[in-house]
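Re: the request from the purification team.
They wanted to know what the chain is likely to look like in 3D before they choose a buffer screen. I agreed to run a prediction and write the result into the notebook, where they can find it.
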Amino acid sequence: MAVTPIGTNTVTAISRRLIIPEIVDNIYLSNPLFFRWNRANKILYKGGTQIEVPLMYSKMAAGGVYSGYQVLNVAPTDSIQNGALPWAQHYVAVTVDGLTQLRAASDEAIVDYLATQFKQAEMDIADQLGFALWSNGSNAIEVAGLYEVIDNGTVQASYAGISHSANTWWNSQIDSSTTTMSSTALNSLFGNCVAGGRAPTAIASNRANYNRYYALNLASQQFPVQPGGQDVQMAQAGFENLLFNGIPWFVDDHMGTDATVGGPVFLNENYFEFAVSRLANFTLRDFITPPNQDAMTALLLWAGQLLCGNISRQGRFTALTA
């Protein structure tokens, strides 16, 4: 009896119904920052020809104490300036050859095969976005990563179209002189990132600096005691972490290994959003068959951008070597 290959429409439908929802969940749980932002509902849908970011650069001029019938100052304050960022796009291709289609003569068989293919695609695009999250702006079509966002003009002259040198309020807190980690240096940078009762909410670093912080916390006594405390939800999700000033310090393996890009990064996540397009939030295009090949191929697409509304409340070390 002849075996009828499963067609492109069937493969597309099976993939969208059974596989893609799990992929989306897995990708947004694959990285400590994605995990935190997904948990805090900071992965938002956006649209438009570009993504605009409202930037807070000054306090409100009006407001204060008053008494009785005193005339109040109600003049508007120009305290927000809009920045703009382009869409960044990522893709990965999934291909099924004709022989595999013949062998997978049932829905169950093709699901098993597709699950393996899409698992590789999931790992690939999760890795892409993990590295994109720490990009430095050297690739104009890439996500505006944290090394571009948390800057004072040393890495890039501007962020979101606003110059660092012409706008001193648009500079992050950068420690480029400390070479040896100490509690004093960590607390100093932490304090520089605090304003209006809002302090950093998380710290990320590479493994070397995480280990330095761990060693820094070992008590100087006959029986050393390791650092105590952790963010329980992060730990349960598989992300080891320690606490500093009550906030989690975790490792992100997508950060660099040298002092410039591997040092502790102090993040105030209140000002971050991870914008995605409804039309490309790990959206699977239809499987199609090329005219000159016995195979079917589909693209898994993502489009979005990392947004930060106040980069002056972010900080990082760029010279730690010990």
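For the purification team: The mean pLDDT is 86.
Please add any questions underneath this entry.
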